[in-house]
Amino acid sequence: MNFEPGTVWLVGAGPGDPGLLTLHAAHALAEADVVLHDALVSREILALARQARLEPVGKRAGGRRTPQLRINERMIRLAREGNRVVRLKGGDPLVFGRGGEEALALAAAGIRFRIVPGISAGIGGTAAAGIPVTHRGLARSVAFVTGHDASGGLPDLDWSALARGADVLVLYMALRRIGAIAARLRTAGRDAAEPVAFITEATTPRQHVVVSTLSEAERTGAAIPSHLPTLIVIGPVIALQPLLAGWQPESERHAA
Questions:
Q1: What's the CATH number of domain 8-116, 3.40.1010.10, 3.40.1280.10, 3.90.1720.10, 1.10.287.110?
Q2: Cα(101)–Cα(69) distance, rounded to whole angstroms?
Q3: CB neighbours of 90 closer than 8 A, spacing ≥ 6?
Q4: What are the domain boundaries of the chain?
Q5: pLDDT tens digits along 57-97
Q6: Does 226 have pLDDT greater than 60?
Q7: What are the residue numbers of the active site?
Q8: Fewer CB near the last or first residue (10 Å), C or N of the chain?
Q9: Residue 231 to residue 145: CA distance in whole angstroms
Q10: What CA–CA distance (Å, rounded) separates 90 from 99?
């Protein structure tokens, strides 16, 4: 598990709670010289990089964005200077995190790298909210879907196939497009009364869960500040949320 100078570790920070970091991730943060981190990585996790220089390279919805090419170039330059570089990404580096693109750039530049998986918000955040993404008798399939394309618009997906093909849908980065997504899904045959859960700041003390329906999803989403990291879940498993989240005092449930 040596973290050698001149290498880059692409590290998943998990959904927010520092306790959900892997041992490899914690080791990388403790040994790093420089940490290039996403905007959504918590202060508590960044505090584990005690000897590193912290450089924010995040992308926030509607806010400042660091171009991907610049991130790639910065990783390569820092590694060539002999630094131990951590590229710290929320969730898992390879689940809507552009970790694959960054790994390809490092490989093309001849930079040694390692990918350290993290708990994706689609699994960790939903579990913390008391929403299992699969459950015997309710859901045998789940799909993880991005809420926007590279330009910020609605992704070019086969929405009809998606609506029919998965019992549960977990939407990343979809808050600003939930109205259009909900309309596509209803047109494709999903029930307008199907439950929809909005999970903000998952796994942190500020975690908040709002339960709505597919017909009311746009109105519910509009009431959530766009800067808050929000995961959206659609499917019958949301009915279990009051039972499975009751033991967590920081988790709240509100019907829209």
A1: 3.40.1010.10
A2: 10
A3: 12, 13, 14, 15, 16, 38, 40, 41, 97, 118, 121, 229
A4: 8-116, 121-255
A5: 976 555 466 899 999 999 999 999 999 999 999 999 999 99
A6: yes
A7: 38, 59, 173
A8: N
A9: 11
A10: 11
